[in-house]
């Protein structure tokens, strides 16, 4: 295949991989909004809600890290 075609595909794949981070950011925003709403309704369980929110955000951020890693690797391939 053409060298430039492969570089273009790698750059395109890198852009698509970044969309994984965008989806996770939207998810974290929604989770935080609902957690704040839940704490406003039941302040006595704020500690449990906060722990659950932080654990969920941690799992979402691992997907961001994975998509960022894939994106960087694809850009490295495109640079060669």
UniProtKB/TrEMBL annotation:
The keyword Transport is assigned to this record: yes
Highest taxon in the source lineage: Bacteria
Transmembrane stretches, start-end: 51-75
Primary localisation category: membrane
Pfam families: ATP-synt_C (PF00137)
Family: Belongs to the ATPase C chain family.
Record protein name field: ATP synthase F(0) sector subunit c
Organism of provenance: Chengkuizengella axinellae
């Amino acid at each position: 295949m053409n060298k430039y075609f492969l570089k273009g595909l790698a750059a395109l794949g890198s852009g698509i991989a970044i969309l994984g981070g965008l989806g996770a950011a939207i998810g974290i925003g929604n989770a935080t909004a609902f957690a704040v709403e839940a704490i406003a309704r039941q302040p006595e369980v704020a500690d449990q809600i906060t722990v659950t929110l932080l654990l969920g955000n941690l799992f979402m951020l691992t997907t961001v890290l994975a998509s960022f890693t894939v994106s960087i690797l694809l850009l490295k391939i495109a640079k060669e």
